[in-house]
Amino acid sequence: MNLLDGKKCAESLVAEIARKVAGYTESGLRTPHMTIILVGEHAPSESYVKSKIATSGLAGFESTLLRFPETIRESELLAKIKEVNEDPTTDGLIVQLPLPKHINQQHVINAIAPEKDIDGFHPANFGRMTLGQKAFRPATAYGICKLLQFYGVPVKAKHCVVIGRSNIVGKPISIMLSNDFDIGNATVTLTHIETPRELLLDETRRADIVIVAVGIPGFVTADMVKDGVVLIDVGINRLESGKIVGDVDFENVAQKCSWITPVPGGVGRMTVAALMINTLMAYQNNFNLA
Ligand code: GUN
Q1: Which residues line ligand 1 (CB under 6 A)?
Q2: Catalytic (active site) residue 52
Q3: Closest by Cα among 133, 258, 170, 251 to 207
Q4: 190-to-90, 123, 142, 249 alpha-carbon distances in Å
Q5: Residue 110 burial (10 A CB sphere; 0-12, 13-18, 19+)
Q6: What is the DSSP string of 192-219?
Q7: Is the dihedral of CA 244, 248, 252, 256 positive or negative?
Q8: Of these residues, 52, 116, 146, 171, which one is catalytic?
Q9: Phi, psi of 74, rounded to the nearest 5 degrees
Q10: Are 49 and 36 in contact (CB under 8 A)?
């Protein structure tokens, strides 16, 4: 069993970004700038945002955190987004999800200027990505691809089973790995909550790569996978004890894997690194840099 070490890979990618940024700023350009909007006090969001801001500093970016109370009206939030869209000193904008129930998430995502949408959630970016065109790719899915690439894990012609069809992970990773991308050309099965258990087991037991993003600790057990499987665990679940675990029964499943991501230190770190890649791309687009 080999670990797909997201921390190591992310550090290497961020260091490469920092080198590029140093070159740009030494030539007289302004620093790349990422803005994050955080609504309310959702504890996991606080922790993700902290990590995004810390990593953006390591990448050599400037960052701004705009905090709003849980009670903000949708119209006020949309007005704020418009302000950031129109601010030429911000390259990339993230609205941290989830949002309070009274705010329509789709209205918010659609309000972000596609050229600043470093999360890759806007329909224009999601559509371009799906069609294989240049786009900001959803960060978690993109981070998974970068991690597989970093460790030279073969994807082309492999059978990949994705568990979970969320717009932020399952859906985009299933599209990206089946597309004719550098890290792609796999045969992908997308399973979800309505997939009958027997069908799910048929699929996972013959999969070369399993990607799970369901938010249920221990969902993937050793009997569900074959020997030599590559396992990508997207889950980040906090147990009552305070321990952070993924969606995989790591202790028992890891023994069967050729490669597996740890939690923490796996995909979570890669999501943040991929956001930095997207922010750099937004900046490069602004300044017509290659
Ligand atoms: N909440 C959980 N994951 C994400 C993400 O990748 N981006 C944003 N904006 N919110 C999230």
Answers
A1: 94-97, 119, 139-140, 168, 271
A2: yes
A3: 258
A4: 36, 20, 17, 21
A5: middle
A6: -TTS-HHHHHHHHHT-SEEEE-S--TT-
A7: negative
A8: 52
A9: -55, -40
A10: yes
Give the span between the Cα atoms of 86 and 80, in whole angstroms.
10
- pLDDT tens sequence across 50-65: 999 999 999 999 999 9
Tokens of 45: 């969001």
**116 is an active site residue:** no
Residues 6+ apart with CB under 8 A from 18: 58, 59, 60
Residue 93, phi then psi, degrees to nearest 5: -125, 130
Sequence letter at residue 239: L
* pTM score of the predicted model: 0.97
The first and second tokens of residue 155, run together, are: 């994807």
Residues 13-32 have pLDDT tens digits of 999 999 999 999 999 999 99
Query: Is 119 one of the catalytic residues?
Result: yes
Give the dihedral of Cα atoms 107, 113, 115, 119; nearest 10 deg: -40
Q: Whose CA is nearest to atom 8 of ligand 1?
A: 96
Residue type, 284: Q
